[in-house]
Design a protein that fits this description.
The chain has 263 residues and is mainly alpha-helical. The protein has one domain. 71% of the residues lie in helices and 2% in strands. It is built from 10 helices and 2 strands. A hairpin with a 2-residue loop joins strand 1 and strand 2. Helix 4 runs antiparallel to helix 6, helix 4 runs parallel beside helix 7 and helix 4 runs antiparallel to helix 8. The two termini are 25 Å apart.
Length: 263
């Protein structure tokens, strides 16, 4: 369906300055918040004998996926697709000797991979932040305990899966509306409503994809006992709903793009 050459071409487009700076700023803000919260309140965060990596991983994951990941996805997807709208590039891409669905699908895969790499970069930053804190505040004992890589992988994997529904919705909206502002505004409104619903421990949250990153796992910020989340071992019903939402909106987007007039 696609080749390394087409993927490379899409990544070159993502070097568009606003996307690069958006990613860099998100990572820097996350590390600044994490470092400052530990450095300025060391007496309350230090727990003798407890592995400090566990709390840092859960806290950083919670802050990122509750307060920053959805706006980041909204702006990332919107900016990447607006590049094509602004240059009227879809008309040229769709007359190329390859299927339209392949063209759109490659862009989706590229955006997902970019977000995955951002999440991996955040995990690396967590490790660096922990060792930097250990240098300034050895009483936190980051250097005395092993890094919980399995915990980090599992925590971020759950949150990324829960975010797929939002990814699918924003991908659909950004393709259907030529401007950047409308999909971005709808996404930010969805994000605000999602926080409100998700924080109220309301069963409605399990039907609202913008709440999924808040409720997929307990990170000690909001209660979720009344929402009715069903656990299937490692997996749960929120992640399943997110995947279904992603597949539905992406499939709808691909179908509509395959029938779009290019005249």
């Amino acid at each position: 369906m696609f080749s390394i050459k087409t993927l490379r071409a899409e990544f070159i487009k993502l070097k568009y300055a606003p996307i690069f700076w958006l990613t860099a700023v998100v990572l820097l803000v996350m590390i600044a918040i994490t470092f400052a919260s530990y450095y300025l309140d060391v007496n309350s965060v230090a727990r003798l004998g407890d592995n400090p990596w566990r709390k840092m991983i859960v806290a950083t994951n919670g802050i990122f996926f509750i307060f920053m990941a959805i706006p980041f996805v909204v702006l990332l997807v919107g900016a990447a697709i607006y590049i094509e709208h602004q240059a009227n590039a879809w008309k040229h891409l769709y007359v190329a000797p390859k299927h339209r669905i392949s063209t759109v699908f490659v862009k989706l895969i590229t955006l997902l991979f970019w977000f995955l790499m951002t999440s991996i970069a955040l995990c690396i930053c967590i490790v660096l932040c922990g060792y930097l804190l250990d240098f300034f505040l050895p009483e936190l004992e980051f250097g005395y305990f092993p890094i919980l890589f399995s915990k980090m992988l599992s925590t971020f994997a759950h949150s990324i899966i829960a975010l797929l529904g939002v990814f699918g919705i924003q991908f659909f909206l950004s393709l259907r509306f030529k401007g950047f502002l409308l999909p971005a505004c709808l996404g930010i409104i969805g994000f605000v409503v999602g926080i409100i619903i998700g924080s109220l421990n309301n069963p409605l949250a399990k039907f609202y994809p913008y709440s999924y990153p808040l409720i997929v796992k307990d990170v000690g910020m909001f209660r979720t006992d009344k929402i009715g989340i069903i656990e299937y071992g490692w997996f749960n019903s929120i992640e399943l709903s997110s995947i279904v939402c992603f597949v539905v909106f992406v499939s709808f987007a691909l179908f509509l793009e395959s029938r779009r007039s290019i005249t």
